Each structure stands twice: as structure tokens, then as C-alpha cells.
Amino acid sequence: MGCDRQYSQVLERLRQAELRPTRQRLALARLLFENGHRHVTAERLHEEAIAANIRVSLATVYNSLHQFTDAGLLREIVVDYGRSYFDTNTSDHHHFFHESCGRLEDIPPGEVVVAEVPAPPDGTRIRRVDVIVRVSSE
Amino acid sequence: MGCDRQYSQVLERLRQAELRPTRQRLALARLLFENGHRHVTAERLHEEAIAANIRVSLATVYNSLHQFTDAGLLREIVVDYGRSYFDTNTSDHHHFFHESCGRLEDIPPGEVVVAEVPAPPDGTRIRRVDVIVRVSSE
DNA sequence: GCCGGACTTTAGACTTCCTCTAAAACAAGT
DNA sequence: ACTTGTTTTAGAGGAAGTCTAAAGTCCGGC
């Protein structure tokens, strides 16, 4: 099954991020990282955890998501007013946002090319370029 | 001064958008459109209106901003979780977002080139492409 | 000018998403 | 096992925005 290997990989990720592998962090990390790339909201992850019988508070879910983000394990994406998505794919890529259902989807790599990144204003440095292609059903 | 002309231009804009030129809408529209392009939040516009002795409620500011947006007079931009900016420049352009101070700034036209816009997922149509370049002070 | 009906505005309660607080629980070295 | 510093938690608190229903305004017809 490879379960043990996955488990210890997740554990190792937390160690490298210098985050104590507590019960809650470990469980959340497994939900996030053991099944391919995902886009989740805090609410959604919390529901999943509860459904999986992991007792964890919403505050801890928020804390963990932010700690993972700070450690570079997640990327936070804001599209809709007042809702954050967390993407387990931290590589350089962009998104489709489905306006009708609020779903976020990766744009296959290589499909958007920002041909020329503008010079940042004086005294500033570019942290990231976000491209969001908003789509709606026809 | 050209004030009368500006006034009637704003009036005309509301008429074309099929929005009754009420006292409040007219006053807000003047704040928004009579002094070059701007990026404002609802809170900010409300404060300005109060400061200019225009009695208007926050709810009306929100209503008006959304009506103007629906009519194509404004463009709504979401960068930060839980805060919307409204841009009076509705032409096709993109933004720098200053992470430290929360300021939004236009990228001069022609500076970002999205060389290739990806094909939208089946059954969907592209509504808009948003490019946000996040910068922070060095 | 004045009326009447439709459209707008308003205050304030409410919702949603998220953060804070202080106390209880836990991890990990000794 | 004990201690110490870190984490977790429930629930209160906060910010941004929406909703409601009552009061006010616009404007065409008279």
C-alpha cells in the first residue's frame, strides 16, 4: 500500500518545516498531501477532518494552513472576496476560477505565458505573479 | 472650471447605465469619476463622502459600487482576503499589489503581455484575465 | 405644481470568514 | 515522570459585506 512510506514522508515534511508533528498537524498534512494536488478552503478541510474522525478545531485548521503556507508547503490564493483557497501545488502555475460554482482549477503548465514581467516600482521586489482566468458556463 | 461639464458628463453616465441620478449616486459618481482614475474600497469612499458632507449610508455605497460595476463603469478587484477594490479604469490592464501597505497600482499598459491565453475548460467562456503582480518593499 | 407608484435609501440586525484570548493539553528533553 | 515551552481549544470578538422592512425620493401624468 505504500501507506507507511507516505506517512513518514509527511512526517519528514513537517520536520523540515520545523513544525512539531502534533496529532492535528500530522492528520491535516496527510489529508492535504497524501492524495495528489488539491485546492481547499479552511472550512472544507475542517469538515473533512471531522468526517475522518479527527478531532480538531477550526482555529487549528487556520493555524496549520498558515504555518504550512509560511513554510512553503502551501500557496494561498484569493479570488473571491472573503475566501481563501490553499493550493498544495506550490510550483509556478496559474488558475481558472469558475465564477458560477466557486471552483478553482489549475491551468495546465505552459498554457499561459506571461511573456514580459513588468519592472516593479522603485524600491520594491516582485514576490509573485498571480494569473487568474475567470470563466463562467456559456 | 469645467465643473458644469463634468457634472453633466457624470449625469449622462448614470443615464446611460439606466440608473436614476439620485442625490447619493450622483455624489458618489462625482467622487469616483471627476478626478482621474482611482482604486477605492467601499469604506474609503464612504469616508470621503462623509468628509465631503454628503450624507450617505455604507449600504448605499456598497449598492452603488455594485450597480456601477454591473453597468461596466467600474471593475472590482479582489487581492487581499476579505477586501474589494473598485477601479475606475475599466480598460484592459493589470495591477501591482503592495503587500505591505495594501495599495493597488496600475501596471502601465503594454508592460505585461499574456502571450497565450489558455483554452477555457469545456462549456465555459473566459470572462476576464486578472494579472496581479505582488510586490513588497526590498 | 401635486399625486401616486415605482425605485432608492437607510439603520441596524445579521452572516460569513477569520483571528484572538486565556486556559487546558501536549511534546520532548532530562 | 517532571518541567518547560509549544499547541490546541472553545468561545468571544472583529472586519467586511448583505439583508430587511420602513421611510424617503424621483418623475411622469394630470
Shape of chain A: globular
Sheet with most strands of chain A: 3 strands, antiparallel
What are the secondary-structure elements of chain A, in order, as H or E? Answer: HHEHHEEEEEE
Biggest interface, residues from each chain = A-B, 40 and 40 residues
Mean pLDDT of chain A: 91
Instruction: State the helicity of chain A in percent bands.
Output: 25-40%
Q: Would you report the number of β strands of chain A?
A: 7
**Spatial gap, N to C terminus of chain A:** 42 Å
Strand order of the largest sheet of chain A: 1-3-2
Q: Figure out the total of helices of chain A.
A: 4
Structural class estimated from helices and strands of chain A:
alpha+beta
Report the β-strand fraction of chain A as a percent range: 25-35%
Oligomeric organization of the protein chains: homodimer
Radius of gyration over C-alpha positions of chain A, nearest whole angstrom: 17 Å
Poorly predicted parts of chain A: none
Topology, please?
The structure is a homodimer of 138-residue chains.
Chain A: H1 3-16, H2 23-33, E1 39-40, H3 42-51, H4 58-70, E2 75-78, E3 84-87, E4 95-98, E5 103-106, E6 113-116, E7 124-137
Parallel strand pairs in A: 4-7
Antiparallel strand pairs in A: 1-3, 2-3, 4-5
The structure holds a DNA duplex (30 and 30 nucleotides).
